[in-house]
Amino acid sequence: MGAIHALLGFAGWTLLMVLLVFSYRGFRLLTGTPINAWPRGSRPANESAFAIRAGDAHANCVENLVVFGVIVLSAQVLGRLDAIAPFAVWVLYARIGQSVAHLIGTNQFLVLIRATFWAAQLALMLRMLWQLFA
Questions:
Q1: Which end of the chain is more exposed for a tag (fewer CB within 10 A), N or C?
Q2: Cα 103–11–88 angle (5° rounding)?
């Protein structure tokens, strides 16, 4: 898998995370929850723990997609995709691992796993930047 495919995979995964949130809210809407029950910046008191985690996992994806996208697209413009390709796919795998750990729960072990996957993504993206500047 090349860097562009990894970026597309990351974008697809981000869309999957928002679809989880959208599906949950759509179900709640169909079962009587008012459409304005989710004001921006706050969470209803009766929001399920899974829905909160799904929203947070989606937000994490969006935050990192921007940075990853800039690195990959810059490599494309510079004609240096080959320099980052070995690392890009691992960013995607670490992102998926982080999201899955986030969705499963928030016990101490899962938070450690999630943080480890996030640290791996940061290290890989820093390495990709290094490769582009080298």
A1: C
A2: 95
114 and 104 Cβ atoms separated by less than 8 Å? no
The two most distant CA atoms of the chain are separated, in Å, by 57
Res 103: pLDDT: 96
3-133: which CATH number, 2.60.40.790, 1.20.120.550, 1.10.3720.10, 3.30.1130.10? 1.20.120.550
Q: How many CB atoms lie within 10 A of CB 37?
A: 14
Other CB atoms within 10 A of residue 39 CB: 8
- Quick one: 75 exposed, middle or buried, by C-beta within 10 A (0-12, 13-18, 19+)? buried
Tokens standing for residue 36 = 């304005």
Average pLDDT over residues 68-91: 97
Give the mean pLDDT of 11-17: 97
CA-based nearest residue to 104, from 47, 57, 38, 62:
57
* Chain center to CA of 61: 2
